[in-house]
Each structure stands twice: as structure tokens, then as C-alpha cells.
Specification:
single chain, 155 residues, mainly alpha, 6 helices
């Protein structure tokens, strides 16, 4: 059953990408990133309760995983935000220079994402062996990210 939930979250993430793109065009990208952060904090906190056996509901587990997958828009919206930010900060350079800068910014974002993809499970495994729960650490990182986003404007 768990493998079905994993597959379902992947499908939901894939299908919600278009919705996320249109929402980020309609509303601000920073607002959508804040929504993604808050929803991920909520989902992580509920999953922590589930992992600690305070909650033992399979439908709630599935619902939280699907909700988290739907709002896991941070990468799609972050890429659009980085490109928009690059265009906003671009001085009157040529179009070729602008394209090179956008490529550099997206490459940096993707490199950071890949480092997180590799280091996250290692850090989670280490934290699960220590007194600190990986869930608590995740919520704290999301809270710091949310505080950082409150200082950013994309208008």
C-alpha cells in the first residue's frame, strides 16, 4: 500500500505542475512559495505525529501525502522566480548575455537542489539516530525559509 501512496504523490506532483504555473502567473510567485512552505510545514508536522504513533489513520496519511505533493510547488515556482528575478536585475545587456545569466541562475538552483537530494537522506538518517527528530529539523528549515521569503518581493 505504501508504494501506491508513493506513486500517487508522484502523479499528483506531475499533474499539479500546470496548475502551479498558472497560479504563479495569476498571483505572485513569492506568495505561492509561502503557501508551499506553510503547507509543507503542516504536512511534516502531521507526518511527525503519525511517525510517533500519536495519529494512526491510514486515510489521513494518504490525504497528507497527497496534500503535500500538490503543494510541493517550490521547485517549479522557484525556477520561474529565478528567471523573473534575473530579468528584473538585468541591466541593458544583450539578449545573449541575459540568456547566459538565466542559465547560470537556473544551474545554481538545480545544483543546490541536487545537493539537497543527496544530503537530505544522509542528514535525516543521522538525525534519526540522535536526539533530534528529522521532522523537527525539517520544520525548522521550512520556518527559516518562510522568514526569508517574507523579506522578498517579486512585484
Amino acid at each position: 500500500q505504501v508504494s501506491y501512496v508513493a506513486a500517487l504523490t508522484g502523479v499528483v506532483s506531475l499533474l499539479s505542475a500546470g496548475v502551479q504555473g498558472s497560479l504563479s502567473d495569476r498571483y505572485s510567485k513569492v506568495t505561492l512559495l509561502k503557501v508551499a512552505n506553510v503547507s509543507q510545514m503542516f504536512c511534516t508536522a502531521v507526518l511527525a505525529l503519525y511517525a510517533l504513533d500519536y495519529v494512526n489513520s491510514w486515510p489521513l496519511f494518504v490525504a497528507i501525502r497527497v496534500l503535500g505533493a500538490f503543494f510541493k510547488m517550490s521547485m517549479v515556482v522557484s525556477q520561474a522566480f529565478v528567471v523573473d528575478f534575473q530579468h528584473a536585475t538585468d541591466n541593458k545587456g544583450s539578449l545573449a548575455d541575459s540568456g547566459k545569466r538565466a542559465t547560470k541562475f537556473i544551474s545554481t538552483l538545480m545544483s543546490a537542489s541536487n545537493v539537497g537530494f543527496l544530503a537530505g537522506p544522509v542528514l535525516g538518517g543521522f538525525l534519526s539516530q540522535q536526539a533530534v527528530s528529522p521532522f523537527i529539523f525539517s520544520v525548522l528549515v521550512l520556518a527559516v525559509n518562510l522568514m526569508t521569503l517574507t523579506q522578498v518581493s517579486d512585484k
